[in-house]
Design a protein that fits this description.
The structure is a single chain. The strands form 2 sheets. Strands 2, 4, 5, 7, 8 and 10 form a 6-stranded antiparallel beta sheet that branches. Strands 1, 3, 6, 9 and 11 form a 5-stranded antiparallel beta sheet that branches. The protein folds into 2 domains: about 140 residues, Sandwich (Jelly Rolls); about 60 residues, Dockerin domain (Type 1 dockerin domain, Orthogonal Bundle). The chain is elongated. It starts with a helix and ends with a helix. The chain is about 20% helix and about 25% strand. β7 and β8 form a beta hairpin. It is of the alpha+beta class. It is built from 3 helices and 11 strands; from the N terminus they run αβββββββββββαα.
């Protein structure tokens, strides 16, 4: 079982990377800045050992971290996870999504939820109507230079909602975790079910290839569904 679990773990890690690449979502880490921009100046690992500082300068300039534009035609929204370091719970991050014209369309403010200096801030933003590409911008209007925060990593996950089925109790194929959408989280849920080996509790939605049984073939079918955008 240990070898099987390891193989499946490596499998899902590879598939997650494939999906992120397919949706062209840029990931940010403080030692990897490809395609990202920062209004405070050039981004280099030597300059920012703690991460990218976000705050408002004494002259009123808002230091902003911006993603490159990414394709969003197969997405309904973007789930955002920000690894954030700050000594003040009142200091958070605002995420803004711009359409392909550079116009801000929506925003979400994320605040720390505990007194720990290291936080994982979560939010999601809808894709702008009619946009084929979009970008995300991050800033902190709550902080000044002496009370700033640092972004160490930003992880973006595409979210695609599933259309409503024809019948009220009909399962949505691929929605393994039952949250009314089909995404990479359902791949994880399906693999967990296979490892647990409890077929009695497996929902009908997990039979992605509709052959009447739940197997690794359903994982492949679910990945194909996500990559092709047919969900």
């Amino acid at each position: 079982m240990g070898t099987k679990r390891l193989r499946l773990t490596l499998f899902i890690a590879l598939l997650t990377t494939m999906l992120a690449t397919a949706q062209q979502l840029p990931q940010f880490a403080y030692d990897s800045y490809e395609g990202w921009s920062y209004t405070g100046g050039e981004i280099t690992p030597q300059s920012f050992s703690k991460g990218i500082a976000l705050y408002v300068t004494s002259q009123g300039n808002v230091l902003t971290l911006s993603s490159p534009y990414f394709s969003c035609q197969e997405m309904d929204s973007v789930a955002i996870l920000i690894r954030w370091t700050s000594q003040d719970m009142a200091v958070g991050v605002t995420a803004v999504i711009d359409n392909d014209q550079g116009t801000p369309c929506d925003s979400a403010r994320c605040l720390p939820t505990s007194s720990s200096s290291s936080q994982k801030l979560k939010c999601s933003l809808p894709i702008p109507n009619g946009a084929s590409t979009a970008r995300l911008r991050f800033y902190s209007r709550d902080a000044d230079m002496s009370n700033c925060g640092f972004v160490k990593r930003i992880e973006l996950t595409p979210v695609t909602s599933t259309p409503g089925g024809g019948g009220g109790d009909d399962p949505v194929i691929g929605d393994v975790d039952g949250n009314n959408r089909v995404d990479i989280a359902d791949v994880s849920a399906l693999i967990d079910m296979l490892l647990a080996g409890n077929s009695a509790s497996t929902p009908q939605s997990a039979d992605v290839d509709r052959d009447g049984s739940i197997s690794i073939a359903d994982v492949s079918a679910l990945i194909d569904m996500l990559l092709s955008g047919t969900n």
